[in-house]
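Following the same procedure, the fold was encoded as tokens, giving this record:
***
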Amino acid sequence: MRLMFSLVIALTLMGMAGGGAQAAFPQTPEGLRAVVDSLQLADDRYDPGASLIRFYEGRAFHPAWLDPAHVRAMVAAVRAAETHGLDPESFHLAALKRLAGQQASAASASGDKDARLDILLSASFFRLAHSLAYGFLDPVRFNRDWNFTPVVDGQDAVDLLTAALADGRFQEHLENQAPSHPLYRRLRTALANYRRIEAAGGWRPIPQGSLLEVGRRDPRVPLVRARLELTGDLRVDTPGDPQVYDQPLARAVMRFQERTRVDREGALVDDDDGAVGEETLKALNVPVGDRIRQLRVNLERCRWLLHDQPASFILVDMAGYRGYLFKDNEIIWRARIQVGDPYRETPSFRSTVTRVEFNPTWTVPLGILQKTVLPKIRKDPGYLEKQRMQVFDRDRRPVDPAAVEWQRYTAARLPYRIVQSPGPHNAVGRVKFIMPNKHFIYLHDTPHKAEFGLIDRAFSAGCIRVDKPFKLAKRLLDSPADPWTIGRIRNILATGRTQRYQPPRPMPVLMVYLTAMVDDQEQVLFREDVYKRDLAVAEALDRSAVPDEAAASQSEV
């Protein structure tokens, strides 16, 4: 459903005008409520109308925007929403500019102030403050399991506007609502850079042709050079024959391949050879407008995610197949990860690592039991022994697998648990990181080490398989009072016994889906949308612009 807040406020405020005259300002709570009640729509998770009522009640219903400089500053702040990937028209830019111009003319003749403009300025401030702090769209629309959503205190917005009216620094107060995390700041800088490229004409498509590799002369080579110069992969002043695909150009292509991580089933991470084949050419030819849209989508996701987050946390970046540990907002550990396949998507949610478990057992979950384990048991009576799995009843007593009539049961009706013993053969490896959540998702080691070398790493059953898990365990458990080393972890593993340890402080985990980000080396990273989640967010952001009230007055409403 399209957000209709702006259209409704435009029509409502026009109705106050009384045949084109200056609109009288509501002088009672009932009068103001009659104006803003129609703004409270079910499709909007945040209700600016409630903030408007509190704000004007606190002012005894006196106009707030008496200073023309304040009006100009607020219009400038609305324009600046574009730098966050938001559409200024979602915050009534055209209506504000037109009403401000009309009021300036009327005020010069009569000194009157237009209540339409006053209320619209306040409503725009509240909506923009909320959008920068929490996101313009409701993430629950795109993920029913979303649990990041903060508690929104509308009174904070009222206090914020009161402070801005006192000092006139509207844009500064609004900017402070956006996430301060480096992830967000870097994405915003990248958006500005790609918009400059777009304004200059973007990049020309590179035609299809044979493989471009070192030593080849080809008329398409200048196009490749120009394309990579625009995005900083190749220095503009790199010498060489512009028609020849030389070594510096190949290195620039390798940087581009590393940044874009083209999804090639079965391809290895080390396959980036600096040659331009079919997949690299496809990535080079993605239009700049598509990249801008990708950056806007991920800025919105960061606004959903990064409000009031701690400075230290684990970031599981599913689309990027990477895990990061932040300490004081700086990355101190990073590793490749494997995530759920497209049929068993890893969900986005927030949790906390409360325990690190070495030499874990693995209880076969229901889905894997039904699809994989039960069929193999029926086919091969020795399967459980080969996999070092045991059967337990509901009272945790061991059961002889030969005594179970496996053909009788589905996974949902099986009255037993199947548990794999600890060891390097275990499906979750030698360590797992427990983080309570309703999805039964956790981070863990894996015996499938070779698969970390693949580019496409979406093939787990939903949990996160982690490369370098023991370094992460050391980081989480280490403290001045109880130092941890890799040697200490090896000694624990050598016992073969399951042992559990609590980190000195619980570590938040953000399970996120970012198809664009900027790393700490200022590289803009674009990823394949493996779960196909971008389109719905992009379309919702693109539908956010609404008609000016002047246009609305010509409608049938």
Summary: The radius of gyration is 29 Å.
